[in-house]
Amino acid sequence: MSKGFAGGPTEAASRDKIETAINTIGFANLSTLMCGAGGCNAGDGAIGNANELANAIMNKSGASGLTDAQIADAATMLNEYAASLKPLVNAAVTSPTNAYTNNKSNLTVAGASFMEVAAGYAWNVDK
């Protein structure tokens, strides 16, 4: 897996914004949040710093068919809200009581219970 980035000036500007946002949020906490306690720097395709993560995001975005304008808009928004995301990511990583696995929310209505059952069927269509 290539850790480099082969884009033009527009893509490079987006990549730089994403890297700045990653550094603002904190690469170590993002790595832990995405890949677990060992981080994302183990095995083939390891991502060991903010630049490599930004490159990987840009490479995947381009391969997914996003336009340069869509990538630039997303990079701008990520950079704009990075400072606000930092405490949320930090709390998710450092506080086990705030983890999504500790979610104890529920909906209770006195005298009623709700259940969802999905059922489906299909027919073969021969031309």
Tell me what you see in this structure.
The protein has 127 residues and is mostly helical. It is built from four helices and no strands. It has helices at residues 9-25, 27-35, 50-63, 68-94. Helix 1 crosses helix 3 (50-63), helix 1 packs parallel to helix 4 (68-94) and helix 2 (27-35) crosses helix 4. The protein is extended and about 50 Å long. The relative contact order is 0.15.
What key phrases describe this protein's structure?
single chain; about 130 residues; 4 helices
Task: Write a brief structural summary.
The protein has helices at residues 9-25, 27-35, 50-63, 68-94. By secondary structure, it is mainly α. Helix 1 (9-25) crosses helix 3 (50-63).
Radius of gyration: 20 Å
Low-confidence stretches: none
Count of individual beta strands:
0
Percent helix: 40-55%
Ends distance: 43 Å
**Mean pLDDT across every amino acid position:** 78
Structural class: mainly alpha
- Portion of residues in beta strands equals under 5%
SSE succession: HHHH
Overall shape: it is: extended
* Helical segment count: 4
> Main sheet?
none
